[in-house]
Specification:
The structure holds two protein chains of two kinds. The longest helix of chain A has 27 residues, at 263-289. A five-stranded antiparallel sheet of chain A has the order 4-5-10-6-7. In chain A, strands 11-12-13-14 form a four-stranded antiparallel sheet. Chain A has a three-stranded parallel sheet with strand order 1-3-2, with helices on one face. Chain A folds into three domains: 7-52, Uridine Diphospho-n-acetylenolpyruvylglucosamine Reductase, domain 2 (2-Layer Sandwich), CATH 3.30.43.10; 57-171, Uridine Diphospho-n-acetylenolpyruvylglucosamine Reductase, domain 3 (2-Layer Sandwich), CATH 3.30.465.10; 179-289, CO dehydrogenase flavoprotein, C-terminal domain (Enolase-like, domain 1, 2-Layer Sandwich), CATH 3.30.390.50. By secondary structure, chain A is of the alpha+beta class. Chain A is built from twelve helices and 14 strands. Chain B is globular, with a radius of gyration of 16 Å. Classes of the chains: A alpha+beta, B alpha+beta. The interface between A and B is medium-sized, with 30 and 33 residues. Chain A: Pfam families: CO_deh_flav_C, FAD_binding_5. Chain A: It comes from Microbaculum marinum.
Chain lengths: 290, 160
């Protein structure tokens, strides 16, 4: 089993890669290869040109600057796991990364590859949605920035135009004391999650919810922020009953089904994981306040 | 398709090869360099049998192109002990603990655990089991493999 023949290009600069991708017919960028290479081995994907991004040093970086984080597309998942600044400012992302595949796949897999492939269960996509991520794209026509919610247009479908390359993503970590949680269910650690939920929560001095973000992923074709719950929880005292209302919203989402996992099971998991994640985040938020 | 020249160091020895770009690293190792210790199972990154170390980190060699390893230092299972020499501590623990039966998955198991134990020299059994979700074994039921990993970890700690 091997890929169909292709011409191989390994540019050293982003501009070269963009030129190649926008001028060649049926060309595909290759990042960590942990999703694209299996597809090519199975010949689900057959390309005339492969533009390997692995030798473009400029795409591999993690910039942490007080209130914002920028991560280069070719930054590997293991490099994110080993970055103490990320552990400090976005612990939810570190927890998420521990569920991404296995040691050997995290050694190659990149954040840009994950955000281009857009598997609905992708943990880094869920975290990017939770942290109001903004994706930076570069094409022949120039550069543009797209918020994650506009960037994911459907099942495994990014808003990138033909020949446009994802170069980096911005995360907006919360400032000040807050709690967080990342929960997912997979049959085996490292497998694609059947469903998951990620939460950030801040409390005010009175112990009421000042701000909340809830992302449910792996359920529908793309991760979803529970906007109704996020808004209605503000000003409320965190209780199990309140969280169960958010669980209702999660359980009403459009859910994928396949031969093994029914839509109703995914919705059940979405409800349970959302409530558990909210409870864990609220406990952590209270601990932060002490 | 035009051929590309690849220079690669495997287990301390330099090799040169001319390869088609679509050739995977595991095929380069097995077919061009005749290093058949690395096994190839599923060929789509699920079973872990083809795991090798590239520049100090474990990778699935069925998901990496040989041309991508140009200039890299690779360690395969053949590099875990001297030729005709005694087994390395992890290999010896596998033998002691019955960490293998048919042996097909063993090269990948050994390379995954080599990477894992470097990062986590004092693991719990649960942590070993999570690391081993990367590799499929159809014979042992994993208990012997986990035992071997725990014994090897203790032995490596004592020796260092």
């Amino acid at each position: 089993m091997r890929p169909a023949p292709f011409e191989y290009h390994d540019p050293r600069h982003v501009s070269e890669a963009v030129d190649l991708l926008s001028s060649l017919e049926n060309a595909r960028p290759l990042a960590g290869g942990q999703s694209l290479m299996p597809m090519m081995n199975f010949r689900y994907g057959q390309f005339d040109h492969l533009v390997d991004l692995n030798r473009i040093d400029d795409l591999s970086f993690i910039d942490v600057d007080g209130s914002s984080i920028r991560i280069g597309a070719m930054t590997r998942q293991v490099e994110m796991q080993e970055d103490t600044r990320l552990a400090e400012s976005v612990p939810v992302a570190l927890e998420a990364l521990s569920h991404v595949g296995h040691i050997a796949t995290r050694n190659r897999g990149t954040i840009g590859g994950s955000l281009s492939h857009l598997d609905p269960a992708a943990e880094l996509l869920a975290v990017s949605a939770l942290l109001d991520g903004v994706v930076h794209l570069q094409g022949k026509e120039g550069k543009r920035s797209v918020p994650i919610e506009d960037y994911v247009v459907g099942y495994m479908t990014p808003a990138a135009e033909e020949g446009e390359l994802l170069t980096s993503v911005d995360w907006n970590p919360w400032q000040g004391d807050h709690g967080w949680s990342f929960r997912e269910f997979a049959r085996r650690h490292g497998d694609f999650a059947l469903a998951g939920a990620a939460v950030l929560m801040a409390l005010d001095e009175a112990g009421s919810i000042a701000r909340a973000a809830v992302t449910v992923f792996g359920v529908g074709p793309a991760p979803v922020r529970l906007k109704t719950a996020e808004t209605s929880m503000v000003g409320e005292i965190p209780t199990r009953q309140l969280f169960e209302l958010a669980g209702e919203e999660a359980a009403s989402l459009e859910a994928m089904q396949d031969a093994v996992v029914s839509g109703s099971y995914r919705r059940h998991l979405a409800r349970v994981l959302t409530v558990r994640a909210l409870e864990e985040a609220s406990v952590r938020a209270k601990d932060e306040k002490k | 398709m035009s051929l590309r020249d690849v220079s690669i160091n495997v287990n301390g020895t330099d090799y040169q090869a001319s390869v088609e770009p679509r050739l995977s690293l595991v095929e380069l190792l097995r077919k061009k360099l005749s290093l058949t210790g690395t096994h190839v199972g599923c060929e789509h990154g699920v079973c872990g049998a083809c795991t090798v170390m590239v520049d100090g980190r474990s990778v699935r060699s069925c998901l990496m192109l040989a041309v991508q390893a140009d200039g890299a230092e690779v360690v395969t299972v053949e590099g875990l002990s001297e030729e005709q020499g005694p087994l390395g501590p992890l290999q010896a623990a596998f033998r002691r603990c019955h960490g293998l039966q048919c042996g097909f998955c063993t090269p990948g198991m050994l390379m995954t655990l080599t990477d894992f134990l470097t990062r986590n020299p004092e693991p719990t059994r649960d942590e070993v089991r999570i690391a081993l979700t990367a590799n499929a074994c159809r014979c042992t039921g994993y208990k012997g493999i986990v035992d071997a990993a725990m014994e090897a970890a203790a032995e490596i700690r004592r020796a260092s």
